[in-house]
Amino acid sequence: MTDWKSKVLSAIDAEQERLLELCSQLIRFPSENPPGDSRDISSFIMEYLKQSGIDTEVHPATETMLNLVSTLKSGAAEPSDKKLIFCGHTDVVPAGDLSRWDFDPFCGDIVDGYMLGRGASDMKAGLAGLIFAMGLLSRLGVPLRGDLALLVVPDEETGGHLGVPWVLERGLVTGTAAVIAEPSGPLNPTIGQKGSCWFEFTVEGTPGHGSLAPVVGDSAIVKAAKGIEALQRLWDIKPDIPEEVQEIIRISQDYVKEREQDGSIAYQVFDHVTVNIGTIQGGTKVNVVADRCTVQVDSRVPFGVDYRDVLDRARSLLLEAGIESEVKGFGFQGNANWTSTEEPIVSNLVESICEVSGEEAYGVLQWASSDARHFRTHQIPVLQYGPAELSTIHNFNEKAPVWQIIQCAKVYALTALKYLGVEESGK
């Protein structure tokens, strides 16, 4: 009887260079979003999978934004009803000021043990691992008892409306579990995320000549500043944390204290509403009293707080500050969500990390939001695991450790074997 686990892991070791070259090639596509155009990188991925005997369905959300669904059908005589979805996105945030990079952001080079380039950590190294693992399972002819689907989406970095939710709402891919290759710690997949409440408010003022301020005119910017100060009190909202997530919150707080940069203070965000004043747009000219100012706020919502209550509290705080303004939600809107550690996909992936790394692994919560919430909305248990140098994500000089890229590919493949199962009679 074939020992598929050993055969698959040995094959990944033997084909490391092929995996790393795939990662480099993905990075060399400048798939920045905005503007968002996945056509070239999508064509490359489809051709790569085709060479491994895997066909791909293309589902365009727009002319330039292509969602890809590739399926490795069960090779078992008696297939199970399990179906695992591997998911990744091809878009990356813009590289920004090129003069602040120490290397070409789209070089895909390996230097001193790191894969370099925009998207190396978020998340082309992880995407490469998913693609490689699926192709390898196909080439080896592993008789999986359930279907393995690969969902590659073009839109995540700007809110993801044309990616995962677009596909799931149309029933273009289905599954009983999912793994997203978003960046994580090498021993700590993320099994839950805080909720999000993005909102904006606009303050009206009375224009006047700048030389007469503040005695003439009524500055919308000054009024908005009072509102900004008042909104800091959103932090004081007390969550009613459900008993079933209290332990995972404690575990996540301890993890952050021990392993994350600024962890000695950052751990507090897991049970608080955070408030980031993201953009301020106001005024028309330096010597004119501003007649309008719009403020956009990124608030992240813990378990035990409804994002709609955050909006209501924001309205109340602005009124208390003397500001009558409509508070309008936009972008990310939703409550905190998680996948229980008792779900098979969680235990399977954590076990795989332990086996590959030889170290203890466990899931933690993430203070940001992700596409995982959309899978949970559709009742699909999901978690995230991917290679990363976390401090470089969305930063200049983005990179990812090569050893993590290889480890993650092994974990992806091993998780598929564990979750889907392999027909015992396979040879």
Category by helix and strand content: alpha/beta
Enter the CATH topology name of the largest domain.
Aminopeptidase
Q: Helix proportion of residues, in percent?
A: 25-40%
Number of helices: 12
Main beta sheet: 6 strands, mixed
Number of domains: 2
The total of beta strands comes to 16
Radius of gyration computed on alpha carbons: 24 Å
Domain Peptidase M20 dimerisation: 191-321
Pfam family, one: Peptidase_M20
Cofactor: Zn(2+); Co(2+)
Protein name: Probable succinyl-diaminopimelate desuccinylase
Descriptive notes:
The protein has twelve helices and 16 strands. The protein folds into two domains: 4-192 and 336-420, Zn peptidases (Aminopeptidase); 195-246 and 271-334, Alpha-Beta Plaits (2-Layer Sandwich), CATH 3.30.70.360. It is of the alpha/beta class and 427 residues long. A six-stranded mixed β-sheet has the order 1-2-6-3-7-15. The longest helix has 21 residues, at 120-140. It has helices at residues 4-14, 16-27, 39-51, 120-140, 164-169, 220-231, 243-259, 263-266, 307-320, 344-357, 372-377, 402-420, and strands at 56-60, 66-72, 83-89, 110-111, 114-116, 147-153, 177-180, 190-193, 195-204, 274-282, 292-301, 327-334, 337-338, 364-366, 382-384, 399-401. A hairpin with a 5-residue loop joins β1 (56-60) and β2.
